[in-house]
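Hey team,

Filing this mostly as a record. A colleague (T.K.) asked me to run one chain through the structure pipeline before their review meeting, and I want the input and output archived in the tracker in case anyone asks later how it was produced. No errors, nothing strange. Just documentation.

Input sequence:
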Amino acid sequence: MSNAEMLPLREHGTEACCPPLNERPLTAEEAERGAAMFKALGDPVRLRLFSAVASHEGQEACVCDISDVGVSQPTVSHHLKKLKEAGLLSSERRGTWVYYRVEPSVLAAMGALLTGAATA
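Output structure:
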């Protein structure tokens, strides 16, 4: 059983999970939420899988299109599960295949967290 917390999704016009790093110090809760996103991407295989989905047409890909990352299929499934638990991906079963898609609101939250610091 996982103790991963789903990250809040960002809707248009709402605040990201965390303010830009140069805006003010993060609260403990904001740091936890931000760390969960980056921790999920801290594994090279997970980062490759996330990138494969994000760069696929429509930011959605069948598991059959992204599973060639140099590890076994059960390991791919494990990593995709971790990305889903972190709220970075969502999935939908269509027949025998599972399709994964990037949660754009989470990408926006991650971008906002880092871009403010980069432009300062």
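Quick notes for T.K.: The helical segments are 28-40, 44-55, 63-66, 73-85, 104-118. Confidence is low (pLDDT under 50) at residues 1-15.
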